[in-house]
Specification:
The complex is a heterodimer. Chain A is of the alpha+beta class. Chain B has a 5-stranded mixed β-sheet with strand order 2-1-5-3-4. The chains are: A alpha+beta, B alpha+beta.
C-alpha cells in the first residue's frame, strides 16, 4: 500500500498530483525508443577502446603501427592525440574539476591507474576489424605495485599513484607526497564539553564497499565531425549540455562548434554526469572524417566507469539518559578511485544534518587508489556516512531503552536548527517523516523468530540551478514544451503536468520534449534531484510568459487594451464588464489567429533556481535471518519521504522504491571483488549481485507533502534521499534479529554467518 | 537610520584560505551583488572566488550565488561549498 500525507491546507489542482500516462511510454514499451547505441549514420565506423589489464603500470610506449595498417581501420588514437590540460582545480570544492586529471581518465598518459583504464582507441569499418585492431596495438608496460583498499592507500608505505600529490587542507603543508588528496573538517560547538554531558557514549568503526550505479544501459554515443570542425554528438547521458562543455574542453573546441542531442537514457543515478566516450568518439570522427559510434560492454562499464566510493569510517556519539544527543564526531575516509574527487565532503555535511546536535565534528579524507575514478551516485556521499551515523544512533537508543524513532523525533532538525556547516535549517519535513512511520500500523506489528525491525533516516540537500524551457503554441492549440533536461525519471510527464496546470489546458494537449543543445537554453544536468524544481520552475515561467502573449493576442482580436484581458482556466476573458461583452477565447481560438496577431506564439524562460528545500526520509524494515546460511530476507520495507508536493505521484513513488532497492543491494550483496593483481573478478551482473524482484517485498511508500514555497507548486527534489537510510535500517534490523552488530557492507551471508558464529 | 547589516559567514576552512581566518563580517547590502562587492573591497578577488566556489544560504535557504538574490535586513548569509548531486 502506498500512502500520501498532506501537511498543508489542501490546495486542489486539476493536473498536479494526478497520474497521467507518460508521453515517452509507448516508444519505450514497444522498443522504438532510441538509446545511445541505437543511433546510426551513413558510413558509420565502429569504435573500440583498448584498456589496461594492469591495476597500476607505467606506460613505456604504445605502438599502433600494425593496427593502423590493418585494412578497414580508419583511425587510431592515443593520449598523444588529445591536447594536454593545465593542472588546476577549477570550480567549487566538492565538484572541483582538474582537467589534467579528466583527460588522463579518458585516455591514460604516463601511467595506467586501474584495470580497464583506456589506453588507445580505434575506429574501423566493422566491429570485428576494430576488435582485431586492438589486438595489434603493442603496449610496453612496467607493472607497478597497486593499492585497492582506502586504509591501505593511506598507509605511509603505500604505493603512490602520483609522485607529487601533496595533501590539500592540511597545515603545515606536508612535505611528502601521499595518496591522500585532501583533508577537510567541519565543526560546531565544543566536542569535549558535549561528550562530558553524555550519559552514554558509543563509538564504532565501519566499512562500506564501492558499489556501482548499475544502470541497465551501458554508455554509448555517436559522433560526427565536419571538415569545418563543427561536430554533432548523440549521447546517452544525464546532461547533454554537460557533455558538450566537457567534450569541448577536452578537445580544445569551441562550445559553439558542438551540438549534442540527448538520446533516451537507460538509467544513470549520477554515473552519467561524467564523460568517458564523447571526446574519444569525436576525436576518432575528426581523424577519420566519418561518423563513429562507441559503446561499452558491461565488462567495460564495471571496470572503467565510476562506482561510488568505498569507505572506512569511525563515528562516536553521545546521548543523555533522556535521549538528547549532545555530541557527535566522525572520521570519513573515502576511496576517490584513480583521481581525486570522492563525495567525502557531502558525507561530512550530511551525516549529522538531520539532527540538532550542539557539538559536532566531521573530518573527511579523499584518497586515491587503483580503482576506476568514483562518480556521483544518488545523494553522493550521504548514504555512506548515514550508514555509520544511523547505526550508532540505533545502538544509543537501545542502550538507553528508547524507541529509535522517538529518539530521532526528539533530536530532529527543524526550522532554525544549526547545521555542522553553518547555516540553520530553513525547512521542516523531517519530523513529519518520523511521525508517519510511528503512526504506521506495521511499526508495532509482532515479529517472528529470527526476525528484527530496524529504522534509519537520511538527509540530502537537493539541487536548484540553471535550467531553460521554451513553449510553442501550435496552430491547432496544442502546446509544445521543450526543456534541456534529459528525462530519466518521468520528467516529461511532470513538465507537461505543470504546463497544463499553469495554462489551464488538458494534459493531453501538451507535448513535452527534450531539446538538443542548439534548440533550448543551457540546462544543467539531470541530477541532484533538481529537475522538477529548477526546470519545472523554468517551464512554469515560460508558460506564464506565453499567457501574457495570449492575452495580448486576445486583446488584439477584441480590439481592446491588453490590460483589459485576464487569463482564467485556459481562456482569455474580459477583465470586467467595462471591457466589453466578449466570449472567452481558448488557446486554440487564439492560436488560429496567430498570423493576424503577430505571428507564432512562443515564449522561453531561463532560471537560476534557488530556495530548494532538502529531502528527508525515514524508513523501517523487517528482516529475517537464516541462522544456517546467514541469508537475510527483507520481509517488509516502509519508506516515508518529504516530497514537497508530488507533481506526478507514481513517479515519486517510483523514485522512492528505486532508491530503497538500490540501498538494499548496497546493504546486502553489492561489492567489487578484486584479485591479488588488482583485477576485478565480478565485472558482470551475474557476479555483481543487484537485487531482483524476487529478492524484494513490495516497497511501501509514504509521500509526506510539506510544500516548498520557493517552487510554484511546492515541489521538492525526490530522487536521492531515499537511498540514504536502507543500509543502516537493515543493519539495525539484523542486530535486533540476531543480537550481533554488523559494521561492514555488504552484509552478505558469509559475514552474517560469521557474526552469528562469533556469538555462539 | 540604516537597515541592520547582514551577518556574512564563511566556513573555517574557507576563511583560513581567503579572509585571514576571520569567519564573520557585518555587511550592508540589499542583494548578493552588494555583499560580493563589499567583500571584494575587503579582500580583492574574493567575489570571483565566491561566485565560482560557493553556494549561499540566506537565512538558511540555499541559493546559487547569483547577484539577484535579495538579502533582507539582518539576514544571516552563509557561503558554503557548492553541492553536486547524482
Amino acid at each position: 500500500m502506498n500512502d500520501t500525507i498532506v501537511t498543508d491546507s489542501v490546495k486542489r489542482f486539476k493536473w498536479v498530483g494526478t497520474r497521467p500516462i507518460r508521453p515517452d511510454g509507448v516508444p519505450k514499451v514497444t522498443g522504438k525508443a532510441l538509446y545511445g547505441a541505437d543511433y546510426r549514420l551513413p558510413g558509420m565506423l565502429y569504435g573500440r577502446i583498448l584498456r589496461s589489464p594492469h591495476a597500476h603500470a607505467r606506460i613505456r610506449s604504445i605502438d599502433t603501427s600494425k593496427a593502423e595498417a590493418l585494412p578497414g581501420v580508419k583511425a587510431v588514437i592515443t593520449a598523444k592525440d588529445f591536447p594536454d590540460q593545465k593542472f588546476d582545480y577549477i570550480g567549487p570544492e566538492r565538484v572541483a574539476v582538474n582537467f589534467w586529471h579528466v583527460t588522463r581518465n579518458i585516455m591514460a598518459r604516463e601511467k595506467a591507474l586501474y584495470e580497464g583504464h583506456a589506453i588507445a582507441a580505434v575506429a574501423a569499418t566493422s566491429a570485428s576489424i576494430a576488435e582485431e585492431a586492438l589486438s595489434l596495438i603493442k603496449v610496453d608496460y612496467e607493472v607497478l605495485p597497486h593499492v585497492i583498499d582506502v586504509d591501505e592507500a593511506m598507509a605511509p608505505d603505500a604505493p603512490l599513484l602520483f609522485d607529487d600529490m601533496i595533501t590539500r587542507g592540511v597545515e603545515p603543508v606536508p612535505t611528502k607526497p601521499s595518496n591522500i588528496s585532501k583533508r577537510l573538517e567541519f565543526k560546531t560547538g565544543d566536542l569535549d564539553a558535549g561528550f562530558a554531558q553524555a550519559d552514554v557514549v558509543i563509538e564504532k568503526e565501519f566499512k562500506t564497499a564501492a558499489v556501482h550505479q548499475a544502470y541497465i544501459e551501458p554508455h554509448a554515443c555517436l559522433a560526427h565531425c565536419d571538415a569545418d570542425g563543427q561536430a554533432e554528438i548523440w549521447s546517452s547521458s544525464q546532461g547533454h549540455f554537460q557533455m558538450r562543455a566537457l567534450t569541448a574542453q577536452i578537445l580544445g573546441m569551441k562550445i559553439g562548434d558542438l551540438r549534442v542531442y540527448a538520446a533516451e537514457i537507460g538509467g544513470g543515478f549520477g554515473g552519467k554526469t561524467v564523460t568517458y566516450l564523447e571526446p574519444v568518439a569525436t576525436l576518432l570522427a575528426k581523424k577519420s572524417g566519418l561518423p563513429v559510434r562507441l559503446m561499452m560492454s558491461r565488462d567495460e562499464v564495471f571496470k572503467a566507469t565510476g562506482p561510488t566510493s568505498g569507505s572506512s569510517m569511525w563515528v562516536k556519539m553521545g546521548v543523555t539518559k533522556d535521549g538528547k544527543l549532545v555530541a557527535a564526531d566522525g572520521i570519513f575516509k573515502f576511496q576517490a578511485g584513480a583521481f581525486p574527487g570522492s563525495p567525502v565532503m557531502n558525507a561530512c555535511l550530511c551525516g549529522f544534518a538531520p539532527y540538532d546536535i550542539p557539538n559536532a565534528r566531521a573530518v573527511g579524507y579523499d584518497v586515491v587508489c587503483n580503482r576506476p575514478k568514483s562518480a556521483a551516485y544518488r545523494a553522493p556521499g550521504s548514504p555512506i556516512s548515514a550508514f555509520a551515523v544511523e547505526s550508532v544512533l540505533d545502538m544509543l537508543a537501545t542502550k538507553i531503552g528508547m524507541d529509535p524513532l522517538e529518539m530521532r523525533l526528539k533530536n530532529a532538525a527543524r526550522i532554525g536548527t544549526p547545521t555542522i556547516y553553518g547555516p540553520k535549517h530553513a525547512h521542516n519535513g523531517y519530523p513529519e517523516t518520523i511521525e508517519a512511520c510511528l503512526k504506521h500500523p506495521a511499526y508495532k506489528a509482532p515479529l517472528g523468530k529470527n526476525q528484527g525491525r530496524g529504522v534509519a533516516s537520511g538527509y540530502w540537500f537537493n539541487g536548484g540551478g540553471e535550467s531553460s524551457a521554451t513553449m510553442q503554441i501550435n496552430a491547432d492549440g496544442t502546446v509544445l514544451v521543450a526543456t534541456g533536461s534529459p528525462d530519466i525519471g518521468g520528467s516529461r510527464a511532470s513538465m507537461a503536468i505543470m504546463a497544463a496546470e499553469t495554462l489551464g489546458v488538458d494534459y493531453n494537449q501538451v507535448r513535452a520534449i527534450v531539446a538538443d543543445t542548439g534548440s533550448v537554453g543551457y540546462t544543467h544536468v539531470t541530477g541532484g534531484s533538481r529537475v522538477t524544481f529548477a526546470t519545472g520552475t523554468a517551464v512554469v515561467n515560460a508558460t506564464k510568459n506565453v499567457i501574457v502573449s495570449l492575452c495580448k493576442r486576445a486583446a488584439m482580436i477584441w480590439d481592446v487594451d491588453p490590460e483589459g484581458v485576464v487569463w482564467e482556466d485556459g481562456y482569455a476573458k474580459p477583465a470586467s464588464s467595462n471591457v466589453g461583452d466578449f466570449k472567452p477565447l481558448s488557446v486554440r481560438e487564439i492560436a488560429a489567429k496567430s498570423a493576424q496577431t503577430g505571428g507564432p506564439i512562443t515564449a522561453s524562460a531561463s532560471v537560476n533556481a534557488g530556495g530548494q528545500a532538502p529531502g528527508f526520509s525515514t524508513q523501517f524494515c523487517d528482516v529475517e535471518v537464516d541462522p544456517e546460511t546467514g541469508k537475510v530476507t527483507v520481509l517488509r520495507f516502509v519508506a516515508a519521504q518529504d516530497v514537497g508536493r508530488a507533481i506526478h505521484p507514481s513517479y515519486v513513488e517510483g523514485q522512492i522504491q528505486g532508491g530503497v532497492v538500490q540501498g538494499i543491494g548496497w546493504a546486502l550483496n553489492e561489492e567489487y571483488i578484486y584479485n591479488a593483481k588488482g583485477q576485478l573478478d565480478n565485472a558482470g551482473f551475474l557476479d555483481y549481485r543487484c537485487p531482483v524482484a524476487s529478492d524484494l517485498p513490495m516497497i511501501e511508500t509514504i509521500l509526506v507533502e510539506v510544500p516548498n514555497p520557493a517552487h510554484p507548486y511546492g515541489a521538492k527534489g525526490v530522487g536521492e534521499v531515499n537511498i540514504c537510510p536502507p543500509m543502516a535500517a537493515i543493519a539495525n534490523a539484523i542486530e535486533h534479529a540476531i543480537g550481533r552488530r554488523l559494521t561492514e557492507l555488504p552484509m552478505s551471508p558469509p559475514k552474517v554467518l560469521a557474526a552469528i558464529d562469533a556469538g555462539a | 537610520m540604516s537597515a541592520a547589516p547582514a551577518r556574512v559567514v564563511f566556513t573555517t576552512g574557507f576563511a583560513r584560505r581567503y579572509t585571514g581566518s576571520v569567519t564573520e563580517f557585518a555587511v550592508e547590502a540589499k542583494n548578493l551583488r552588494g555583499v560580493l562587492r563589499e567583500m571584494d573591497l575587503l579582500f580583492p578577488g574574493l567575489a570571483e572566488t565566491l561566485e565560482e566556489e560557493t553556494t549561499v544560504a540566506i537565512d538558511g535557504a540555499i541559493h546559487e550565488t547569483g547577484y539577484f538574490q535579495l538579502v533582507p535586513p539582518g539576514a544571516e548569509v552563509f557561503f558554503i561549498p557548492k553541492i553536486e548531486g547524482g
